[in-house]
Amino acid sequence: MQPAYIDTYYSRTADTTETYPQATGRIEADVCIVGGGLAGLTAALKLVRSGRKVVLLEAQRVAWGASGRNGGFVSAGYATGLAAIERRVGPDQARELFRFSMEGVEIVRGNIGEFGIQDAHPVPGIVKALRYDSRGALQAARERQQREFGLQLRYLPREEVGELFVSPKYHEAVLDEGAFHFHPLNYGRALTREATRQGASIHEHSPVVSADLDGVRKVVRTKHAEISAEHVVFATGGYTGGVLPALKRAFLPIATYVLLTEQAPDLVQSAIRTRAAILDDRRAGDYYRLVDDGNRILWGGRITTRTTDPGDIATLLRREMVTTYPQLSGLKVELAWSGLMSYARHLMPQIGQWKPGVWYCTAFGGHGMNTTAIGGTVIAEGITGESDRYRLFAPFDLAWNGGIFGRAAVQLTYWSYQAADAARELRSR
């Protein structure tokens, strides 16, 4: 029996119900992809369109993890900022990597258009808001990104922000008019249908239990199948197992939380008066948007290294929502859920070749909708020989995550950021 998706807004509004069979028997392939999230699905689609025989193995359902239960924001950038990338690789390579992130947005947008994925419901516009006065820094950053990368960015002063988001919290913002938000689960399922239509073999409920990766032909095993392939791509995320220990040691599973409010259009409109999505610049700050034609709010936020769900997800997030918008104190929560993302300690995706014929494409936490698209694309290009663009990510390799000490450090860092953000916000009142 196929495992179900967890109960989320996205699973409740999935437009189709098709499933994919378990892998069974001996299977020959050119490429075996482990992980049916958006990175693995993007790679599978590009590879099968190039004529490769592709087998994809998913332990649960396609787009079951973070790929299908996130905030749905598609915009340029990474989980870490451009300045941090520049410090590590220099300005030239940092600019190339940022352009990759922009290309990822266009890959998603292009797929929606080319394959007619109407049930992805893309809505233009994402606002990045500040809870303090940056004294010109936000405008300077907007001007630089517009000048160097041509992003469609519009500065919003406090008065205009207040007209769109009726909250005392926000001081200024930038609207990215080229970004959009959408239904990631419907998008992922549409990629699966298209990859299958073009000849890929997609298998759900097929967790990998072992792999022999040293020979010219790699062998990947599930409980009921053995797949032989020239190339193996590990495109897993926060739920990664231990089949490739180097991968397991290189990421931290980080939980984030999302709620869905009841339908209350008048109450919702009293607070949020735009279809653009919003996120604030705090580390692990709030991110939210209207869904169901503006009748509900989908609100996300908070991170923790705790991998089990707290019992009060809805209460925690609702408190953030009402603190931001006191007029929503009567708005009820209908549903709340969590999901595990994979983060590297350097906060960049990990994309590359571990050894000949063994590839990894992971660690998309915090900014995954565009980066999974470009990650899956450049890995596919590396396999086919079309390009070696994946090498630009080499400085962000499978660095050790620090184990339990790394997890503790991340949680302590997050708490320190929260304290610093609160103090900065207090000074701006």
Describe the structure in your own words:
With 429 residues, this protein is of the alpha/beta class. Helix content is 34%, strand content 26%. The strands form 2 sheets. Strands 3, 4, 5, 6, 11, 12, 13, 14 and 15 form a 9-stranded mixed beta sheet that branches. β9 and β10 form a beta hairpin. The longest helix is centred in the last third of the chain and has 25 residues, at 403-427. The chain starts with 8 loop residues before the first helix and ends with a helix.
The amount of beta strand, in percent, is 25-35%
Largest sheet: 9 strands, mixed
Mean pLDDT: 92
Shape call: globular
Describe the structure using short key phrases.
single chain, alpha/beta, 9-stranded mixed beta sheet, 17 strands
Short description:
By secondary structure, the protein is of the alpha/beta class. It has helices spanning 9-12, 38-49, 82-89, 91-114, 137-149, 158-164, 184-197, 245-248, 265-269, 313-324, 368-384, 403-427, and strands at residues 25-34, 54-57, 73-74, 123-130, 153-156, 172-181, 201-203, 208-212, 218-222, 225-234, 252-261, 277-280, 287-291, 296-304, 333-343, 350-355, 358-362. Helix 2 (38-49) links the parallel strand 1 and strand 2 (54-57).
